[in-house]
């Protein structure tokens, strides 16, 4: 059952509008910091090593990845903020936000393993854990905010697609 307030008013004793806005920017900052770190690792080999790999059917054009990922990172930050805002504190939203942090760490780890270490087989194994962590985050968030959970579904879908691409690259480049 969702404890999300659908009346439009703040929860009793909840954060003020200014505090809520500051936390929104903090969530955006943390998520996009992870995005930038992953992008920096990706940049080390996307222009050379990655170009030499055989890729599976349905691999998108290179420009698609940053567009999609930036949109998904934005949705991730909004989703986490909604859970925090619904509970009004980190004490009450600690577990779902910890799961969120774990999946965010696994997201960065995938970039490190795939692009940094240039190890598609290990990245294929790692992305299974990422996908499970995203699913766990969706389930945990749904208990606090249906909207927060729904905002993560495009991310889950893209990560499952990324798993297909990763496994495909691992198999095609043995």
SSE topology:
Layout: H1 17-43, H2 64-87, H3 90-116, H4 120-142, H5 146-172
Give an account of the 3D structure.
It is a single chain. This protein starts with 16 loop residues before the first helix and ends with a helix. The model is unreliable at 1-11 (pLDDT under 50). By secondary structure, the chain is mainly α. Helices cover 74% and strands 0% of the residues. Helix 4 (120-142) runs antiparallel to helix 5 (146-172). The chain is built from five helices and no strands.
Descriptive tags:
mainly alpha, disordered N terminus, 74% helix, 174 residues
Helical stretch count? 5
**Shape call:** elongated
- Residue-averaged pLDDT, rounded? 93
Give the SSE order as H and E letters: HHHHH
Total beta strand runs:
0
Helix fraction? over 70%
Query: What class, by secondary structure content?
Result: mainly alpha
Strand percentage, roughly?
A: under 5%
The radius of gyration over CA amounts to: 17 Å
What does the largest sheet look like? Answer: none
The low-confidence runs, each spanning 5 or more residues with pLDDT under 50, are 1-11
The termini sit apart by 47 Å
């Amino acid at each position: 059952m969702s404890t999300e307030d659908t009346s439009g008013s703040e929860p009793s004793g909840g954060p003020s509008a200014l505090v809520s806005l500051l936390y929104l920017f903090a969530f955006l900052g943390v998520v996009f910091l992870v995005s930038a770190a992953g992008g920096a690792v990706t940049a080390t080999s996307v222009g050379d090593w990655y170009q030499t790999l055989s890729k599976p059917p349905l691999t998108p054009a290179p420009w698609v990845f940053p567009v999609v990922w930036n949109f998904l990172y934005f949705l991730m930050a909004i989703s986490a903020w909604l859970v925090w805002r619904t509970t009004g504190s980190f004490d009450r939203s600690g577990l779902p936000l910890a799961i969120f942090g774990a999946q965010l760490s696994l997201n960065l780890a995938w970039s490190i393993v795939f692009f940094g270490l240039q190890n598609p087989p290990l990245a294929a194994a790692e992305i299974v854990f990422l996908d499970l962590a995203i699913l766990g985050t969706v389930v945990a968030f749904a208990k606090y905010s249906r909207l927060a959970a729904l905002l993560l579904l495009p991310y889950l879908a893209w990560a499952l697609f990324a798993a297909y691409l990763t496994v495909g690259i691992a198999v095609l480049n043995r």
